[in-house]
Structures are given as structure tokens and as C-alpha cells.
């Protein structure tokens, strides 16, 4: 009997999953049911999805003692120190509070956010924005309590120490002083910059915003290709700051377009434009968004890498869809471009209709069909805390724009 590798099995699963993702009624038609209508903006369905998410959080929160990282067999698997995802669980609970105004959500959110306190002085990661913006900055915005502000500012100070002055970039990985990955930055870092802009806003110290803006300019110069696509990674000589070239860890290749990375960039550049008013950042966000609109028109739940050789029949990443929807909604508000709004709402409709965990009462998460790292065959067809978080954020941007604007600073 010939042994089958996990990659071969996943390839077969990808073909099935990808094919079903392309047509909204495909699964029902296969079962003999009539096909459903095409994916389209549907605010009433979004309200149902948000209600489901809040109810799921209410059900799951009492059982979560640390930080969910991904699901296995429909249950959250924790990462005890928070890893890079620790901010999303308290962030989800804050979003539950934003929608429901239930003080129990506030209590859970406070408790979860405080568990991140030991990470405040961590200079070994670029993910301080992911960790402390949805948790501590949102806590400060909603409560006005100085302790949340002061802790988040200290987290921004920790992040500032990772800035490479020669190359004008924030180092992604590796402890300070180590040589491995010393010149490496990634597209994801665009999402950590808002912690720096916020730190300048509340302290008056311009160094944080300067670092953030310089990093964003470097990202424009070295990441964004002429067609608006991006690689996951770019390497520099850490001493001279000289560019070495693109690479990848989570995308298909150094020349491909990892869907979640593209989403991070769209969201991050739109936010950077709002903080600075500098149109080069808006142009970067729109170029990146325009690149993926044709892909989303064909299939609103993004394939994990837009240039996968198995496209369009490959594994999807629902988390990339949720993040993309947030970025497109931001761009729609900034530019008035109806294509961004319509595409975002269509993505949210597709997520609501094909990716929720509604078929299992025991499931801990809200959004299924996430892909953590397809390249490493790690976390395929799972739920991810950032998928749930950005799904809720996107829907709140549509249904409760004033409330979410206060919570996250839109």
C-alpha cells in the first residue's frame, strides 16, 4: 500500500474546499437542495452573525483561562503567555461589550487583558500592537482609566527598541542582540504601527509616530510590487540597512501574494493614512486593495495565497477575508469608493453563509475555515482568534460605526 503524505491529502481536500467556496449554492446543490442566491450585501444577515458571535462568546468566555491560539476538534487550544495572538481574546470580549453593553463582558475583558501584563516589557517581538491595541488601548478608550494608557505606552516603548535606524524598519523576529532574523521585517508589522501612533497621541512624544511612519515608507518602497501585490517577508543587511530582497515564511513563495499578509497591508496602510494624512499611505492601501478585487469578485472567501498554483481550488482562509473586509470598509469611508464598500459587504455575506460554526453546538469559536500556516501545513481548516475578532470588528463598522470608532479609534 502506498503511503500518502499529509500534503497530498491536503491537496485533495483543498480541491474540494476551494470548489465549494466558489459557488454559494454548491454545497446545497450537491445535497439535492436548490441553489441559494449569490453572495451580496445583506445587513440583516450581518446582525444575525453578530448576535451569533456575541452568544458564542458568552457561552465560551467562562471556560477560557488563558489565550486561545487556534482550535483543535472545535475547542480552543491555549497559548499561555499569549504568543502573538494574546490581544485578540480580550479584544473580542471588549467587542462583545461594545455591542451588548453587558457589564459581564467588561468584567471578562478586564480580566483577560490584565493577564497580558507580564508582556509589557517584552522587546523580543514586533507583535506588541497585536497584543496591546485590541486589549489595553481599547480598554483605555472605553474606560478612560490611566492604568490602561500607561501600560500600553510602556508596550509601545518596548516595540520602539526594535527599530533599525540604518534600514528604517522594525525588526520582526528574534530577540534583540541575536543575529538570526536581525534584518528581517514582514508585511504583518503594518498592523503594529497604530500602537505607536496612539502612543504619540497620548504622550506628545513624536518618536513613536516617526518610527511608525518611517517603517511604513520602507514597506512601500520594498514590499509593494508594481501590480499592488506584496511578499510576506523582506530582508535587509541589519548593519548597513541595505536591501537584500523579498522572501516568505507563510506565503507560497517569495513572488506570491499571501492573502492574510495582503490584508494586513491594506488595513495597516489605511490606518497609517488616517493617522498621518500622508497620501502616499492611502495610495499604498488602494493599490493593494485594487490588486485583490478581481480575486474577491470570483470568490469572496480568499484563497490562502492568491498565487497558489492550485488556485482557485485550494484551501481558503476566512481570517484573511475578515481582515480584508475591515480594510476595505476603512478605504470606502476614506475615499467614498463604492467598490470597496460593496466588496467588503459581499465578503462578510460569504463568511456569514459559508464559514460560521453554526453546525456544531460544542464549537468554541465563531468563524471556521481559517488557515494558520498552509506552507507549513500547520492549522489548516481551523478557527483562529483573529478571524473571530476581525469578523466582529468588520460587522460593527457596518452596524454600529460610532461605537466601534470610539473603541478602536476610527
From TrEMBL:
> What Pfam families has UniProt attached to this entry?
Glyco_hydro_88
In its keyword annotation, does this UniProt entry include Signal? Answer: yes
Q: Does the keyword Transmembrane apply?
A: no
Homology family: Belongs to the glycosyl hydrolase 88 family.
Keyword set for this entry?
Glycosidase, Hydrolase, Signal
Q: Name the PROSITE patterns for this protein.
A: TAT
- For this protein, what is the EC number? 3.2.1.180
**Superkingdom as given in the UniProt entry:** Bacteria
Q: GO: which molecular function terms?
A: chondroitin hydrolase activity; unsaturated chondroitin disaccharide hydrolase activity
Per the UniProt entry, what species is this protein from, by scientific name? Answer: Crossiella cryophila
- Stated name of the protein: Unsaturated chondroitin disaccharide hydrolase
Amino acid at each position: 500500500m502506498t503511503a500518502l503524505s499529509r500534503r497530498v491529502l491536503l491537496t485533495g481536500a483543498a480541491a474540494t474546499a476551494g470548489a465549494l467556496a466558489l459557488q454559494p449554492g454548491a454545497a446545497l446543490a450537491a445535497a439535492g437542495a436548490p441553489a441559494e442566491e449569490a453572495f451580496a450585501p445583506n445587513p440583516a444577515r450581518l446582525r444575525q452573525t453578530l448576535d451569533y458571535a456575541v452568544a458564542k462568546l458568552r457561552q465560551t468566555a467562562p471556560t477560557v483561562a488563558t489565550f486561545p491560539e487556534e482550535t483543535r476538534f472545535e475547542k480552543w487550544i491555549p497559548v499561555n503567555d499569549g504568543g502573538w495572538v494574546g490581544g485578540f481574546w480580550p479584544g473580542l470580549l471588549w467587542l462583545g461589550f461594545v455591542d451588548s453593553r453587558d457589564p459581564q463582558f467588561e468584567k471578562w475583558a478586564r480580566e483577560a487583558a490584565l493577564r497580558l501584563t507580564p508582556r509589557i516589557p517584552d522587546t523580543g517581538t514586533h507583535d506588541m500592537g497585536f497584543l496591546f491595541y485590541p486589549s489595553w488601548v481599547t480598554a483605555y478608550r472605553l474606560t478612560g482609566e490611566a492604568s490602561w494608557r500607561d501600560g500600553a505606552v510602556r508596550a509601545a516603548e518596548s516595540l520602539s527598541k526594535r527599530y533599525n535606524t540604518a534600514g528604517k524598519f522594525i525588526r520582526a523576529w528574534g530577540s534583540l542582540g541575536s543575529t538570526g532574523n536581525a534584518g528581517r521585517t514582514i508585511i504583518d508589522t503594518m498592523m503594529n504601527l497604530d500602537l505607536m501612533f496612539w502612543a504619540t497621541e497620548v504622550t506628545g512624544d513624536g518618536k513613536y509616530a516617526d518610527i511608525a511612519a518611517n517603517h511604513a515608507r520602507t514597506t512601500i518602497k520594498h514590499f509593494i510590487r508594481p501590480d499592488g501585490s506584496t511578499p510576506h517577508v523582506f530582508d535587509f543587511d541589519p548593519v548597513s540597512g541595505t536591501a537584500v530582497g523579498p522572501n516568505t515564511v507563510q506565503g507560497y513563495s517569495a513572488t506570491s501574494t499571501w492573502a492574510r499578509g495582503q490584508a494586513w497591508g491594506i488595513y495597516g496602510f489605511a490606518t497609517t493614512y488616517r493617522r498621518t494624512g500622508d497620501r502616499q499611505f492611502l495610495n499604498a492601501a488602494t493599490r493593494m486593495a485594487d490588486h485583490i478585487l478581481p480575486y474577491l469578485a470570483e470568490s469572496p472567501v480568499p484563497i490562502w495565497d492568491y498565487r497558489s498554483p492550485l488556485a482557485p481550488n485550494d484551501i481558503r482562509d476566512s481570517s484573511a477575508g475578515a481582515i480584508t473586509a475591515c480594510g476595505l470598509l476603512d478605504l470606502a469611508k476614506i475615499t467614498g469608493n463604492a467598490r470597496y464598500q460593496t466588496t467588503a459587504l459581499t465578503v462578510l455575506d460569504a463568511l456569514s453563509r459559508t464559514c460560521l460554526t453554526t453546525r456544531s453546538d460544542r464549537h468554541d469559536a465563531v468563524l471556521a475555515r481559517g488557515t494558520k500556516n498552509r506552507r507549513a501545513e500547520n492549522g489548516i481548516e481551523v478557527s483562529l482568534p483573529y478571524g473571530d475578532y476581525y469578523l466582529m470588528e468588520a460587522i460593527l463598522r457596518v452596524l454600529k460605526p460610532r461605537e466601534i470608532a470610539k473603541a478602536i479609534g476610527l
